[in-house]
Design goal:
The protein is built from no helices and 37 strands. The protein has 545 residues and is mainly beta.
């Protein structure tokens, strides 16, 4: 690839379109429009071409001033399938080829999922708020041999199914295990077993005439030994949580030979992670997490969420919950979440897969919403409000470009009625939202009372008072933009994009300018209107009081 910056400078690695960016070493990237972009972090270890890297290495890189987090990716075998935004992820890649794809707030990433004698590529980028650098040029390295037990070559065992094998062609990596003071300097073979719940039973038969033993491990290390089996069956004294376990068959005092190995769960209902996991109602400050309800053999549900997959916020929820609203989130941020099931018997399930959602960067801010009490009138103004939203999904033709104020309301069930009176002499409207998002609008209120057509579930709702066509609280040149007019008009609820015909009761009272005190307040200048009349129609029409 060519260097678009010319000789003597370095260019940012973005294979999707590398010719558009230059890296002005050592300060910043700059694109063709002169926009400065964060530089990618220089890597420290492993550097390009390193061999014999341990499978439990720590990836290191230098810090970047102002960075809030870093994104690290590791890919196995090749450097194909690269995209600038998603790193090595592509339609042809598989999860097994991308063992690490994490966000971290530090300048290192501990890797425990790498295989021995394997070629890997790794890369890192920096982020600061909504700005991200490009990924660093991919670094290639090769892992070395494993010292100790090797879980990557473990032979899987099915629950209750006997496996016939031999240790003759095994390895000699371990001589002692923490649960038995036996000299196991013979060759060993490693097996893996996926456990659902309850105690675990290991049954070993020495079929080759040699003294081989079996060891049940909670993870692939001799210090994590739960059970030692000389011959025949042995069972763990207590229930074990769901997950992957390892069983090593090793030779006592140098022995090696054949064996028959059977591993099984003690029985009972399995303890699996929740299913049907999804998210909904995502706003700049909140999101709803959903899952399939399964209260059988469930004591509680654990939900964890995090902006960096390092510092997790933990919520323990009752067994009959099937959704949870996360609040207090930050805008323009990607959040990750996962769940596990805590069973009445059988320990806890493994965590589910990790899911993610991104909060929007703009829109309504409900963190400081003004609380409304049921049936109580609140008097306020939009003059000091914000201008984050211009349209709402339930009245998309209304131009709400004025300032808005957000209110919250705790609803106990049934239909909801919103009554709005425009007390400041300007045209403000009210919108009832099921969550803090303009796209989740249930009801639009021009003035007066309006009620939702159906009963609404219990929960927190939001009512936003917003200004039509840019207006905000105050008397606007003596014209009350509302519906108290004599004669025929268009109904603004149905045709908001068309102007409302305004008519004063007395032609000599057509102006009420700010600062002119010789008139009564604006609302006194206007009278009732005929409701429901359309352009070109004539009375009689029913009066709107």
């Amino acid at each position: 690839m060519h260097n678009p910056c010319g000789s003597g400078s370095h260019w940012g690695y973005t294979p999707s379109n590398p010719s558009n960016y230059c890296y002005q070493d050592p300060l910043y990237y700059v694109d063709n429009n002169g926009i400065q972009v964060l530089p990618h972090p220089p890597v420290v270890y492993p550097v390009n071409g390193t061999n014999g890297v341990p499978v439990t290495l720590t990836l290191d890189w230098e810090s970047i001033a102002g960075a809030t987090n870093y994104r690290v990716q590791v890919k196995k075998y090749s450097n194909s399938g690269w995209t600038a935004e998603n790193g090595f992820t592509s339609n042809t890649s598989t999860s097994s080829n991308i063992p690490i794809n994490n966000t971290t707030g530090t300048t290192s990433q501990f890797a425990t999922t790498l295989e021995p004698n394997t070629i890997y590529y790794w890369t890192v980028r920096v982020a600061n708020g909504s700005t991200s650098s490009f990924y660093s040029p991919p670094i290639v390295f090769t892992t070395g041999n494993v010292t100790g037990l090797n879980s990557y070559t473990a032979i899987p065992l099915a629950n209750g199914v006997t496996h016939n094998g031999t240790t003759i062609n095994g390895t000699s990596a371990v001589t002692t295990y923490s649960c038995a003071n036996w000299n196991e300097n013979g060759k060993e073979v490693v097996h893996s077993f996926i456990h659902s719940r309850g105690a675990i039973t290991v049954n070993l038969v020495q079929t080759g005439g040699a003294d081989v033993d079996a060891f049940l491990l909670s993870s692939c290390g001799p210090t994590n030994c739960l059970l030692a089996v000389d011959q025949n069956a042995a069972t763990t004294p207590s229930s074990q949580q769901a997950g992957t376990y390892y069983v090593v068959v090793d030779g006592y005092l140098g022995a090696q030979g054949g064996y028959a190995l059977t591993v099984s769960s003690a029985g009972g209902t399995s303890c699996n992670a929740p299913t049907g996991i999804s998210h909904s109602n995502v706003t700049a400050s909140s999101a709803q997490i959903n899952w399939t309800l399964n209260s059988a053999n469930t004591n509680s549900i654990t939900l964890e969420y995090s902006p960096n997959q390092t510092a997790w916020v933990v919520q323990t929820l009752p067994a009959n919950y099937y959704f949870y609203n996360i609040t207090g989130l930050s805008g323009s941020t990607t959040y990750y979440y996962r769940l596990k099931r805590n069973c009445t018997t059988g320990g806890s399930s493994p965590y589910s897969s990790t899911y993610s959602f991104a909060t929007p960067g703009s829109g309504l801010n409900c963190s400081g919403a003004i609380v409304l009490s049921n049936g109580a009138t609140y008097n306020g103004t939009t003059v000091n409000g914000t201008s984050a939203v211009t349209t709402y999904s339930c009245a998309s033709s209304w131009n709400e470009s004025g300032k808005e104020v957000v209110h919250s309301f705790v609803h106990s069930g049934g239909a909801i009625t919103v009554n709005l009176a425009q007390t400041g002499g300007v045209d403000v409207d009210a919108f009832l939202l099921s969550s803090c998002s303009a796209s989740n609008c249930l009801l639009a209120v021009d003035q007066g009372a309006a009620t939702t057509q159906s009963s609404q579930q219990v929960g927190t709702y939001y009512v936003v008072v917003d200004g039509f066509n840019g207006v905000q609280g105050g008397c606007a040149h003596g014209i009350l933009i509302g519906r108290r007019w004599r004669g025929f008009i268009q109904q603004r609820d149905l045709r908001r994009s068309q102007p409302v015909r305004r008519q004063l009761l007395h032609p000599n009272q057509q102006h009420h300018r700010r600062g002119n005190n010789d008139h009564q307040p604006c609302r006194q200048h206007y009278v009732r209107l005929y409701a429901g009349c359309r352009r070109g129609s004539r009375p009689p029409c029913p009066l709107l009081e």
